[in-house]
UniProtKB/TrEMBL annotation:
GO terms for molecular function: dolichyldiphosphatase activity. The gene is Dolpp1. This is Dolichyldiphosphatase. It comes from Dryoscopus gambensis. InterPro entries: Dolichyldiphosphatase_PAP2, PAP2/HPO, PAP2/HPO_sf. The keyword Membrane applies. It is a multi-pass membrane protein.
Length: 213
């Protein structure tokens, strides 16, 4: 009968939904930056596992959750995952996707709204781990700090080290075979894909109209 607990339990499944979303996005988009983002999430999980097994701080109520995969709780993997995702997405929105049209107000508005949503979800997922007795406040706090630091470091690594290599990687025969592409030089990929798709659709419509006449 605990509606809040049930809602928070569903929210704590956020990392699973995000991973499924990334796999789906990679299958359909096959873009190197998206692959790198997923690689950062996997690396972040590896760091979390390493820290947990070094510190070995137990969960607050080990006997209450017999299904957890590890008895260690410092730092919270959910909190670290969500803050990595949120901080990296924030950096991507404001540093990677630049303004390309005249709708400056609307462009900034949707970025601000999306950023607020990302932070809100990260906070709720972090809170859910304490509410559901999986972690203490300190475990959640350090998880958030670790995830944020990892996100900043991975974003810098991607921008400064990996991005210059993306054109070369995209030219590999195996990349061409799997249709893997590099869109790092396109400031706003959403706007670019929208305008290119719209122009191509209109062009095909004109050709179709000409044939039917």
């Amino acid at each position: 009968g605990d509606f809040s607990g049930q809602l928070l339990a569903y929210l704590s499944l956020g990392p699973i939904f995000i991973i499924v979303g990334f796999v789906t996005l990679i299958i359909f988009k096959r873009e190197l930056h998206t692959i790198s983002f997923l690689g950062g999430l996997v690396c972040n999980e590896g760091v979390n596992w390493l820290i947990k097994n070094v510190i070995r701080e137990p969960r607050p109520c080990e006997e209450a959750h017999s299904t957890v995969t590890t008895k260690y709780g410092m730092p919270s993997s959910h909190s670290q995952f969500m803050w990595f995702f949120s901080v990296y997405s924030f950096l991507f929105l404001y540093l990677r996707m630049h303004q390309t049209n005249n709708a400056r107000f609307l462009d900034l508005l949707w970025r601000h709204v999306l950023s607020i949503c990302l932070v809100t979800v990260a906070l709720l997922v972090s809170y859910s781990r304490v509410y559901l007795l999986y972690h203490t406040w300190s475990q959640v706090l350090y998880g958030g700090v670790a995830g944020s630091i990892m996100a900043i470091a991975w974003f810098a690594f991607t921008q400064e080290i990996l991005t210059p290599l993306f054109p070369r990687i995209a030219a590999w025969p195996i990349s061409e075979f799997f249709l893997i592409r590099d869109t790092s030089l396109i400031p706003n990929i959403l706007w670019f894909e929208y305008t290119v798709t719209r122009a191509e659709a209109r062009n095909r419509q004109r050709k179709l109209g000409t044939k039917l006449q």
